[in-house]
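User: I'm curious what two different proteins look like when written out as structure tokens. Can you demonstrate?

Assistant: Sure. I'll show them one after the other, since each token string lines up with its own sequence. Here's the first protein:
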Amino acid sequence: MSVSQRTPRAATVAAANSEPQSQLNVMQLSNVVLETMKVHELVEEFRGDLAKVNAGMREDVDDSLLRSIETDTLQKSVAVEAKVNTVSDKVATVTDELVEHAQDRRLLLFKFAAVVKQEAAARHAADQLLVSAAALMRAADSAMYQAKRGESGYAFAI
């Protein structure tokens, strides 16, 4: 029985590092980042459109006799524009954080894969050492048995 078969952690590491699952998680996170970027682009587009509407309303208020009604409407529209600006800034922050998180996650997955490969190599080396140690023990046992029986022509002493 090899060392990796005796260690329950090996099965856990193998399950945790299943490549299809890791790739699926990275793809899902990438899709979220892309969708967030699309939302940010839309909010930015609406932000620009609303700024243009408000600029046009400001010009109309200057020329109009119904200033009090239009001024109230303009103030509400400016308030909406401020909210859209705030939302746009928050979406941009979230998008930046998602991109950073996705990059960090990808880097961690690469590092984890490297560690798993190193662990597998270490386990293989340990298995080879166990095989060599077992062969050495068999040879030593055989030599001691022969020495006890006097077949080797050499006396054995410890």
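Here's a second, unrelated protein for contrast:
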Amino acid sequence: MGRSGAPGRPHRSVPSLGNIGMKQTPVEQTQVPEDGVHRTTFPDGKPSEEYTIKNGKEHGMHRRWHENGQVSYEISYYHGKMNGRMRWWAEDGMLYGQRYYFDGRPISKKGYQAKCQMIQGLPRFADEKTSNTLGNYVRRLRKAKREQGKMGPSAEQIEEERWFDGQCKAEAKQRTSKVLISWLGKGAKQERELGELSKSEAFRLARKLFGMGAVRIWVTNIERDEDGAQYSRRLIIALPDASPKRSKIYELCAELARPFIGGSAPAIRVGKRFMSVSLL
């Protein structure tokens, strides 16, 4: 289901979310569906999909499953629109990520919680701790990095690093990318969130990275909600030349890294001059 990561790096098969997004739902219909619970199953009888229609509109939790019985993803609907938390899992049960929606549009977690205070009927969600499979995944990332450092890069890996560095340079120049410190700066009146980090936590992370030798840090794929709040789940870091400093930066980022939505890219990836980090 997923694609391989860079040579020498661990990778996973992850659920594909298809075209699910702000303007589409998993249910494509040409007529008003019948009210009630709708279910489909795999040939062996295990659940494949389940959702509820109320007054002609989707309402409640929409779930799909992997064929092995593990939930693939779940999306909360409220009177026909995505409202609440969306989460997705790998076939082995590892939580890959989550995001929040209000009225069909992405919104930060804090922004959604604020909406819940104003609108009584919106779905509420308690924070849940993930299992230790995420910790195992991070440990595999570290082990692969150490083993790669001992063996040295192959010719193929050197060429891929060059390609990756070029991609990072191009991504940093996109309109949806900003220098991290500037993005978090005093002139930013609206809320800023970096993954699950608050603005102050993101500042502390930036100071640590610069203290370890990071040359420059960009935040990319910036999204905005209807209130003007901005949030991102991805960093591009220009790395120092010294290997010990690069290793320290990698170790710090490995604590925060999560596989990116869609699952085709590693949570953290390193080139010759740049590193990308996907955050939950």
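A detail about the second structure: Residues 133-278 form one domain.
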